[in-house]
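Incident review: delayed structure delivery

Summary: a single-chain prediction request sat in the queue longer than the usual turnaround. Root cause was a stuck worker, restarted by the on-call engineer. No data loss occurred. The affected request and its eventual output are reproduced below so the record is complete for anyone auditing the incident later.

Affected input:
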Amino acid sequence: MYLDFCLRLWATLAQAPTGVPVEANPAVSPPPPPAAAPSLNFIQYLLMAVYLLVCIGLIAAVVTQSSKNEGIGGMLGGGNTQSVFQGKKSTEEMLGTATNYLAVSFIVLSMVVSMVMR
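Output delivered after worker restart:
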């Protein structure tokens, strides 16, 4: 019943208006031209470019990480404890740090873009 009502309403709205054409009736003014789409300024383009780079970097950082496969022991802190005592960071740890920074940047830039593009 609801679908039938929606289809009838859609068919009614989709019909072309009938009656006197606008050109033949001088009392009816023509519709105004459509408003131009707002153009973006340089700062907005720059912000969107940085946002795009952060998005691509975050995707790349997440995809290149290897899975830990530690199970429940890794969640409880019984995972790789020897990496704590190493002097130099491994590639995996640097990639994890980069992922954290990119994720925070993504969240902050998402909020900034939503406020600037209004």
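Verification: The chain has four helices and no strands.
Action items: add queue-age alerting; document worker restart procedure.
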